[in-house]
Design goal:
six-stranded mixed β-sheet; Alpha-Beta Plaits; alpha+beta; 439 residues; Aminopeptidase; 2 domains
Amino acid sequence: MTSPLRFAPLAAAVLAISAPAFAQLSPAEQTMMTTVEAGFEDDVALLEAITNLNSGTHNHDGVREVGQMLIPEFEALGFEVEWIDQNHVDRAGHLFARHMGDSDAAKVLLIGHIDTVFEPESPFQRFMRDGDRATGPGVVDDKGGIIVILSALRAMQAAGTLSGANIVVALTGDEEDAGDPIAQSRQHLIEAGQWADTALGFEGLSVVDGQDLAVVARRSSNSWTLTTTGCTGHSSGIFAEGAGYGAIYEMARILDSFREELPEENLTYNVGFMAGGTPATLGEDNLSASAIGKTNIIPDSAVARGDLRTLTQEQTDRTVAAMQAIVHDNLPGTDAQIDFAFRYPPMSPSEGNAALLAQLNAINENMGLPKMGVFPPARRGAADISFVAPYTDGLAGMGPDGSGSHAVGESVDLRSFTRQAQRAAILMSRLAAQAPDRR
């Protein structure tokens, strides 16, 4: 790769032409704008290189290889880089890059991920460009986000604002399928969140009707397993005293009660699959179930699995309690149990997140861009930034604009890299110039 200072002469030339358009920006910020523009084709070339290396979550060698490609990019910017092995949770590892500046400057955490959902057996493997549009595995989620991070940091270096900044870049290697136990696979990220004053997540930008929207909240992602049991016997005795209703009616009662009693804003509780019979069993992978039975036998067991998504921890706790109450109000002759697996916590809306958006919108105004509204949190999935949300203010959706994430044909608007890297560089520089209140 060429030197990160490679854009300086061209940036100066572009600055002389473009400065009037950026009159509300400081000279350093104008340099960031033009540096990002000048580096566009090199950024696309790096995106192509890392996209063409398969880094599906379970392709550990591929995840490590992409990480090794990125290490010199961060080292050239003065970052200390560490590869954190995660063999103990059956994952490849994480790349953390640290830049320590002025002791009184804000501490900023940048979050992205190296892995994709596309494993080596996927037919979707190569980067393809058509003008300002490109397709490829992870071009949005999240190799494109990594490019935005690097482009912004290079712009800060060119403008002289990187030297005093305190920045940690956390690129996880298993965001799409976090290793278990999750407390271990996310230990280093959580510690970085406890260190930070601000966290920025670089998954894809949310765009609706051509308008860029900010992500100040994301919902949790948890799962539940429900089992019901009943007294088996001849079907002619169903509903009678001593026989009861059987496991399937009890399962149906519980699931329909969830549907009727739980609805509220920003809460969903999908049922992914279920089975009932004599017996019904959950597969060892927790992703399947099987059952056998006869129409003249009262079923003795049923099982279902689903997810639970909430906007706040309070909503999680309250919903779990309500689900447990429904589960324990059993039909005659039946019993039931529900178990929860808490995976990704919510990134709840907060005053601090709203204040960060206000700062970003001030930058949008200075850049001549429209004000960004808030993207509905129920329309974004869970992400790694949620693990640090309890400890620091944050904004997500700082990556590029694209479509089709997690599907063959995933694509990205390459020109969105420019405005996203410019926004990020100026925001990080302004944050670094602030002395945060750490009382």
